[in-house]
Amino acid sequence: MLDGLTNAPASDLRIEPENVLDPRHFAAVRAQGPRLHALPLWCYSSPKFFQAEMERLFYPGWNMMERVERVPNKGDFHTLTFMNIPLIMVRGSDDKVRVFANTCRHRGAVIAEGSGNCKNFRCPYHAWVYSLEGDLLGAQQYDDGEDKPIVTDANKREYGLIEIPSESWGGFLFVKFRKGGESLQDFLGEVPARLASHRLEDMVCTKQLVFDMEANWKCFVENYSDGYHIPTVHKDSLARWKAKYTRQAPPPSGNYTIAFAEHDGSQLLLPFPDYVGFPPMPQIDKEWARGTFFTTIRPGMMMTMGNDGALAFRCEPIGPTKSRLTVSSLFPKSTVARNDFEEIAKNYYRRNDMVVREDVDISLKQAAGIASPFARMVTLQKLEKPLNQIANWVLDRVIGKDAA
């Protein structure tokens, strides 16, 4: 049986092939023209394809992890598990924020939990002590069978905590799990310059929503860029906005997309009388003061940036059919200092409770449907073109740009 829309066996779209990295599986995705295609359905559930994404896309690439403000003072630390890897972010005695693998260099025990402030880290298993900069300070009674110390001044540097490469932009901390490759500045391309006047670095996170989803990470990322679903999924929320998409970044060869919707107000709210918000930030460039930016920094960071604040999304892969979505509400420090901040901010939060949950729910419904033996992926509609761009960006990194 053939699927006439793809000229490939219909079952092949759902069932994982033996060689998931064979470029021939993606011929329809690679083909460009008026009729475009997304990835085969098995790319949303295949353990082999997921592992290739982790090894070739996520581990060597830059991933938005947290806000630097999580550790504002020297000695502040915050632990988290990111993409199944236990990590510590800490502000050192030199005021620099670093990220370390949260695992003792001796026998691998987690050395810190939760958040707080400390002068050093002490492993709970054998009391190895590490500085805030990751250096091993002491390993008590760590002698070999001849009572000679295993750790000496000559080799002590070899036993420090493993530092994860990290850089920051706009108050966001990015990490990569493989050394080398392009800098964060090169990775972000034109994004910092285009969004500079919003001054993300001067904002703070006032609330987070976290969703553990039974869905591949691409489900939500694609949904954020899918304009076709808005009249249906958001018929009583975002669809009520009347916006003119007059400015959009040219199709990038890099790792991001930027679109600008021109309208009155802020899409961090809903266009209803009872959604009272904060005034626009005075420093925004005049051409961007009336409208909302929609930005995707691949693979898993998205931002909705109004003239009054920002909403940042992080979609984190957990497994082939599992992901974690973290949604952060950001406002300027001067706005948060207002006496009426908490009251007005409720309007932004209830907008998120509605709109984000609509997107999460539909992502879960799509993921559940993909599991069906009768699931099919057909030609994309014109407002779904970004899904093909996302697919090709993934394939460029997972199977190679020149693979044919």
At a glance:
By secondary structure, the chain is α+β, with helices and mostly antiparallel strands.
Folded structure, characterized:
Keywords: 2Fe-2S, Iron, Iron-sulfur, Metal-binding, NAD, Oxidoreductase. It comes from Hypericibacter adhaerens. InterPro entries: ARHD_Rieske_2Fe_2S, Rieske_2Fe-2S, Rieske_2Fe-2S_sf, Ring_hydroxy_dOase_asu_C_dom, Rng_hydr_dOase-A. By secondary structure, the chain is α+β, with helices and mostly antiparallel strands. The protein folds into 3 domains: 1-61 and 376-404, no CATH class; 63-168, Rieske [2Fe-2S] iron-sulphur domain (Rieske Iron-sulfur Protein, 3-layer Sandwich), CATH 2.102.10; 199-370, Naphthalene 1,2-dioxygenase Alpha Subunit, Chain A, domain 1 (Alpha-Beta Complex), CATH 3.90.380.10. 22% of the residues lie in helices and 26% in strands. The chain has 9 helices and 20 strands. The protein has helices at 27-30, 47-58, 184-188, 191-194, 217-225, 230-233, 333-336, 341-370, 385-400, and strands at residues 2-3, 8-9, 63-67, 76-82, 85-91, 97-101, 115-117, 121-122, 129-130, 136-138, 163-164, 166-169, 172-175, 203-213, 244-248, 256-262, 291-297, 301-305, 310-319, 322-332. A 7-stranded antiparallel β-sheet has the order 14-20-19-18-17-16-15. It is globular. It starts with a strand and ends with a helix. The model is unreliable at 1-11 (pLDDT under 50).
Largest sheet: 7 strands, antiparallel
Mean pLDDT: 93
Radius of gyration: 23 Å
CATH fold-level assignment of the largest domain: Naphthalene 1,2-dioxygenase Alpha Subunit, Chain A, domain 1
Q: Which structural class matches the secondary elements? A: alpha+beta
Biggest sheet strand order reads 14-20-19-18-17-16-15
Query: What sequence of helices (H) and strands (E) makes up the elements?
Result: EEHHEEEEEEEEEEEHHEHHEEEEEEHHH
Helix residue percentage: 10-25%
End-to-end C-alpha gap: 25 Å
CATH class of the largest domain: Alpha Beta
Strand content: 25-35%
Weakly predicted, low-confidence segments: 1-11
Shape descriptor reads globular
How many strand segments?
20
Q: Return the CATH architecture of the largest domain.
A: Alpha-Beta Complex
Mind telling me the CATH superfamily name of the largest domain? Naphthalene 1,2-dioxygenase Alpha Subunit, Chain A, domain 1
Number of domains: 3
Q: Helical element count?
A: 9
